[in-house]
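cron nightly-structures :: item 1 of 1
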Amino acid sequence: MNDQPLFASKRQILFFVLSGFFIANALVAEIIGGKIFSVEGVLGLPSANIPTPWGDKWSFNQAAGALNWPLVFIIGDMINEYFGRKGVRWLSFLTAGLIIYSFFIIYAATTLPPAQFWLDVNKGTTNFNIDYAYKVIFRQGLGIIIGSITAFLLAQFLDVTVFQYLRKHTGHKYIWIRATGSTVVSQLIDSFVVVFVAFYLFGNWSAGQALSVALNNYLYKFIISLLTIPILYLVHYLIDRWLGTENARQIADDAATELPVSL
């Protein structure tokens, strides 16, 4: 009987847990990202309808995928801190591949012929076609795959580059500077690329609508990156305590210098 432990080290467990949460949040964001909601509506306020130089009205409309981005910020920064460029690069390609795989499965599911009883029990008094709704909702997500994958990979590689650059100048201190700085730069690219590619180039939005939503996405992510700084420090503290402070610092140093430290 094999009594060897499943994980060889705490560092391995950390990478496994962070990767799992990162991939899960990325997949969920892709699936729900096709819905655009009104921030004013959530707060019970009327739509802002602010006049813009490009002719459209600017209201605070936001992609639903933004709901779980605060977790992505924190997890991404922790992977950056303890596993460096190699860890982020490996995880980014894996996540992108899994997103593509997921959308192929989702597309296949939308092509399956519906069971008649499923259509009947859901049509209600308005003759609602649940299969049509199912296809429209999920295929809307399929339409943004090119923009989301492009934006995701560009943002991740830019984020880790800026993060590691700032880390070389801050050492073990001021994690909020490298975390916020990398987010501010990378999410500028992410917010605009995903919206313009997905909804303007491959969708039916006007350039003004795309610009408004992209600005809202970036503004939201910028504010959230500032508000989550205390949580970032808490998570960093807990990981350091669990790994051991000296061991955690050595792991972070090795990651920053890209030394071949095994999991």
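cron nightly-structures :: done
The CA atoms of residues 85 and 126 lie 54 Å apart.
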